[in-house]
Amino acid sequence: MTGNTKDYSKYFDFSGAKVISEEDGKTTYRIKGRNIQINAAPNYKEEKKRGKEDIEVHYDFVIPEEMSVFGKGKYYIIYTYGCQMNEHDTEVMKGMFEGMGYTATEDRNIADVILLNTCAVRENAEDKVFGELGHLKHLKLEKPELILGVCGCMSQEESVVGRIMQKHSFVDLIFGTHNIHRLPHLLQDAMFGKEMVVEVWSKEGDIVENLPKKREGMRAWVNIMYGCDKFCTYCIVPYTRGKERSRRPEDVIAEVRDLARQGFKEITLLGQNVNAYGKDFEDIQYRFGDLMNDMAKIDIPRIRFTTSHPRDFDDHLIEVLAGRGNLVEHIHLPVQSGSTEVLKRMSRKYTREMYLELVGKIKKAIPDAALTSDVIVGFPGETDEQFEDTVSLLREVGVQSVYTYIYSPRAGTPAADMEDNITEEVKKKRLARLNAVVAELSLEAHIKLKGQVLEVLVEGQSKNNPNVLSGRTRTNKLVHLEGPQEWIGQFIQVKVTEAQTWYVKGEPLEMSQRQEAVS
Ligand code: SAM
Ligand code: SF4
Ligand code: F3S
């Protein structure tokens, strides 16, 4: 696993930099009064390559004995931005911190290590991180022994690493999405070396199993694959997360079985494109439909997945999902645009008609499936008419909820070189109109639920009123109900009494009615 490049000069001014030491592929530079140890730095060209080399799975991860008390009496905080993938990476890093003896805290004044687990998907996500770094600078000045680290998807960007080295040199540690398992060693280097440590592998390759994880609550995320090979023209993820690598089915199944034994109630299988699961297996024919079939046999109440790419959603998968059981009837199927022309420029590799045909098949097999989606507005060249195609598609599908985004150019992606001829004003207008339509569709779906009895997994109490509990249905609808604290973590049958735009209210059935509803 490498990815080192000596070609840093294009995004970082090395003039005046002195090489202080060079050993084991680690080079330490003295730049503007700061020592920077570079083990590996990101490189877009490398990140774009998709090699044929085999994916090795490592099962031998352990936190070295001498590091298991390294953090005794010390505190850590991880701030997480971005998607569930990042949230789950944070759980892994928390597991490693606690394996080193560290304790979690929310008080940054007592923290010994603060990590920012970042997201690069849109510019505003990055702005938030740079804003936070600005705040943390003061803390670092007051407490020089504090270790400040940046990891996650932004660390995989050449321009970001250059900017941090240049303008935020108080940062102690930068590591990428492929180096997470190296955290204990990197922390040690940053702590004892007193220099900024940069280790960002541009090329993935391997899968590291048996990483510790600190999970909380009753719902758990489980990665089934890493990376993405789709290269939608607007998207940075294939660069920041590397090529598609599927975890072996036996490892996924063992992890889910173990979570069931621990009492988790709901599992969400994670991948940027879960429908491509198994495409990379050379020795077995085993795809996402097969995995879901095996998931249905595990004694755990609910299994979800995210995210599906419409292109790889095959008939076998639909057939398996239609068997239900613990496979919930919620399908998040990002469409991005309802215009075939725009989809082509986005390189989504399906047309409006293909998407609608797929939705038709899903609805035929699972009539009460809740479909949700992602949409980008203001993609370069999107006309008013093409935008209206998106609105009409969402109505035709009857989507129940949509994450909507204004297109954000990402350096290094093909769309960033397309002429962005839409004014901010038009983009904002389109977003507002889209959000109004989405709200309308969501309310429509909720009104249809009135009077129905739904199974709700109660997740917690409302912040404003401790007597109000909230939970989710199998279709991921947010439900508020009144009930005792003991219900948290339980499945309760609830009759929907009120429909609001983003949630419904319901009344729990009496115990006898509940039993009737279940039988
Ligand atoms: N893999 C998922 C898929 O293909 O649907 C999506 C992953 S991406 C992390 C989540 C969403 O962010 C995408 O579905 C897309 O709508 C949005 N997104 C990605 N790149 C974007 C960009 N450059 N500007 C605006 N939104 C973007
Ligand atoms: Fe990005 Fe497309 Fe991959 Fe999703 S499928 S992560 S949008 S490149
Ligand atoms: Fe962001 Fe990386 Fe997820 S770019 S959305 S954190 S995969």
Automatic annotation (TrEMBL):
<dbReference type="Pfam" id="PF00919">
    <property type="entry name" value="UPF0004"/>
</dbReference>
<feature type="domain" description="Radical SAM core">
    <location>
        <begin position="214"/>
        <end position="444"/>
    </location>
</feature>
<dbReference type="InterPro" id="IPR002792">
    <property type="entry name" value="TRAM_dom"/>
</dbReference>
<dbReference type="InterPro" id="IPR020612">
    <property type="entry name" value="Methylthiotransferase_CS"/>
</dbReference>
<feature type="domain" description="TRAM">
    <location>
        <begin position="447"/>
        <end position="510"/>
    </location>
</feature>
<dbReference type="Pfam" id="PF01938">
    <property type="entry name" value="TRAM"/>
</dbReference>
<feature type="domain" description="MTTase N-terminal">
    <location>
        <begin position="74"/>
        <end position="192"/>
    </location>
</feature>
<comment type="similarity">
    <text>Belongs to the methylthiotransferase family. MiaB subfamily.</text>
</comment>
<dbReference type="InterPro" id="IPR023404">
    <property type="entry name" value="rSAM_horseshoe"/>
</dbReference>
<feature type="binding site">
    <location>
        <position position="119"/>
    </location>
    <ligand>
        <name>[4Fe-4S] cluster 1</name>
    </ligand>
</feature>
<keyword id="KW-0949">S-adenosyl-L-methionine</keyword>
<dbReference type="GO" id="GO:0035597">
    <property type="term" value="F:tRNA-2-methylthio-N(6)-dimethylallyladenosine(37) synthase activity"/>
</dbReference>
<dbReference type="Pfam" id="PF04055">
    <property type="entry name" value="Radical_SAM"/>
</dbReference>
<comment type="function">
    <text>Catalyzes the methylthiolation of N6-(dimethylallyl)adenosine (i(6)A), leading to the formation of 2-methylthio-N6-(dimethylallyl)adenosine (ms(2)i(6)A) at position 37 in tRNAs that read codons beginning with uridine.</text>
</comment>
<feature type="binding site">
    <location>
        <position position="228"/>
    </location>
    <ligand>
        <name>[4Fe-4S] cluster 2</name>
    </ligand>
</feature>
<dbReference type="InterPro" id="IPR006463">
    <property type="entry name" value="MiaB_methiolase"/>
</dbReference>
<dbReference type="InterPro" id="IPR006638">
    <property type="entry name" value="Elp3/MiaA/NifB-like_rSAM"/>
</dbReference>
<dbReference type="InterPro" id="IPR013848">
    <property type="entry name" value="Methylthiotransferase_N"/>
</dbReference>
<dbReference type="InterPro" id="IPR007197">
    <property type="entry name" value="rSAM"/>
</dbReference>
<comment type="subunit">
    <text>Monomer.</text>
</comment>
<keyword id="KW-0808">Transferase</keyword>
<feature type="binding site">
    <location>
        <position position="235"/>
    </location>
    <ligand>
        <name>[4Fe-4S] cluster 2</name>
    </ligand>
</feature>
<dbReference type="InterPro" id="IPR058240">
    <property type="entry name" value="rSAM_sf"/>
</dbReference>
<keyword id="KW-0963">Cytoplasm</keyword>
<feature type="binding site">
    <location>
        <position position="153"/>
    </location>
    <ligand>
        <name>[4Fe-4S] cluster 1</name>
    </ligand>
</feature>
<feature type="binding site">
    <location>
        <position position="232"/>
    </location>
    <ligand>
        <name>[4Fe-4S] cluster 2</name>
    </ligand>
</feature>
<dbReference type="InterPro" id="IPR038135">
    <property type="entry name" value="Methylthiotransferase_N_sf"/>
</dbReference>
<keyword id="KW-0819">tRNA processing</keyword>
<keyword id="KW-0408">Iron</keyword>
<dbReference type="InterPro" id="IPR005839">
    <property type="entry name" value="Methylthiotransferase"/>
</dbReference>
<keyword id="KW-0479">Metal-binding</keyword>
<protein>
    <recommendedName>
        <fullName>tRNA-2-methylthio-N(6)-dimethylallyladenosine synthase</fullName>
        <ecNumber>2.8.4.3</ecNumber>
    </recommendedName>
</protein>
<keyword id="KW-0411">Iron-sulfur</keyword>
<keyword id="KW-0004">4Fe-4S</keyword>
<feature type="binding site">
    <location>
        <position position="83"/>
    </location>
    <ligand>
        <name>[4Fe-4S] cluster 1</name>
    </ligand>
</feature>
